[in-house]
Design goal:
- 26% of the residues lie in helices and 35% in strands.
- By secondary structure, it is α/β, with parallel strands linked by helices.
- The strands form two sheets. Strands 7-6-5-8-9-11-10 form a seven-stranded mixed sheet, sandwiched between helices. Strands 1-2-3-4 form a four-stranded antiparallel sheet, with helices on one face.
- The longest helix has 12 residues.
Length: 223
């Protein structure tokens, strides 16, 4: 087996560092002993983008907020679905993630961060939502491991009643909050309902081939 090669380490505000590994042509972002994401298994990240866009049919110039760049699969999926009038704001907390995207992972990134429809903001997506009022047609959150996070305790606030209220306030009428999770969470689905959303829970596979672990995406439409 080809050994993993450590490419770099990125500091996470309020949490342990992330490490980027490469094995052959594959990349993996790892937190301690947990593989958070990889180029081998990105089907659910793609689904987050494409399925959210499917729910925006009829919007000629939608404005989307993506919380967490990751490896960019969700962003690239969104850009592939949307027309030239769309606007996508990407908020990424960890500068090292963007350094990797523009450096060793540039071939994977495929120039998506330089698309004229994209605005990149460094910071906390929770703060971005808190300072927005009816600004977005869709908010896509792929932060940490979902509601049951691993990376930093502060991320849990995104999935709290207050965080969901701020997300709802940041959406336009009928807007969609899409939340990715590594695992099911019935209590979180009920919390979305209580927070003023109509909720659809979708199971997706980790690999685009339809294989691999099952992940969850909640599509919550603002009532």
């Amino acid at each position: 087996m080809t050994p993993r090669e450590l490419i770099g380490e990125a500091e996470v505000p309020g949490g342990p560092p992330l490490r980027l590994f490469r094995r052959g042509s594959d990349f993996m972002i790892v937190l301690e002993r947990n593989e958070l994401m990889s180029t081998r298994m990105h089907g659910s990240e793609v689904a987050l983008g494409t399925m959210a866009c499917d729910r925006l049919a009829g919007h000629k110039a939608p404005h989307l907020l993506i919380g967490g760049y990751g490896m960019g699969y969700t962003l690239r999926a969104v850009l592939g679905q949307l027309g030239p009038g769309a606007h996508v704001t990407v908020v990424e907390l960890v500068p090292g993630i963007i350094d990797w995207a523009r450096g060793p992972m540039a071939a994977v990134t495929a120039g998506c961060l330089d698309d004229p429809r994209v605005t990149l903001t460094m910071g906390d997506v929770g703060a971005s939502m808190a300072h927005s009022n009816a600004q977005y047609d869709a908010i896509l959150l792929d932060v940490d491991n979902g509601p049951d996070g691993l990376t930093r305790a502060a991320n849990d606030g995104l999935y709290s009643p207050r965080g969901l209220a701020e997300a709802r306030n940041a959406l336009r009428p009928g807007g969609v909050l899409a939340v990715w999770s590594a695992a099911p969470d019935t209590a979180f689905g009920r919390l979305l309902e209580r927070s003023g959303f109509s909720v659809e829970t979708v199971k997706v596979r980790a690999r685009e081939s339809g294989k691999g672990a099952t992940h969850i995406i909640w599509f919550a439409t603002k009532r």
